[in-house]
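We treat protein structure as text, and this decision shapes the records that our systems exchange. The tokens are whole numbers drawn from a learned vocabulary of local backbone shapes. Below, we set out a record of this kind in full and without editing:
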Amino acid sequence: MNPGLDKIWHRCKPELPRLLRFIGVGILSLVLTTGMYAVITRFLWKEGNRTFIYASVIIIVTWINYILNKKHTFNAQGKCAQGAIGRFTTVAIIATVMNNVFFWIGHDIFHVFDLLVILCNTGIIAVFTFSSHRLFTFHHEPWRFIKKPIKPT
């Protein structure tokens, strides 16, 4: 194997189980999102604004996601869990805005089939949220990117 690829593989290999758990949580979230959205828009409230319905479903599924990712995917405890709800809320708000804007553009402006837009959104948002949760939300040093002020001598 190429030495460069071997080095990358050894750095990424420990993340593989976490990534697989994240994918499992993501698939469950996709099933919940699509199922709840389909039931509401096809049976319970056919005339409802689909963007509003989608936003409501996303908010509910986001909190289910938080619980599963905190406990199952990232196993956040102790220092990693301190303040995680605030950091998760920040990431969740950004992801929810992105998700709803992409849905609105895809479904309302370009008239793409709503369930297809949901599938595409899932992939985009999954990359964003995994990276954000791994590097920020559930990290033991979430603020490490902010430089400490230099003390005058």
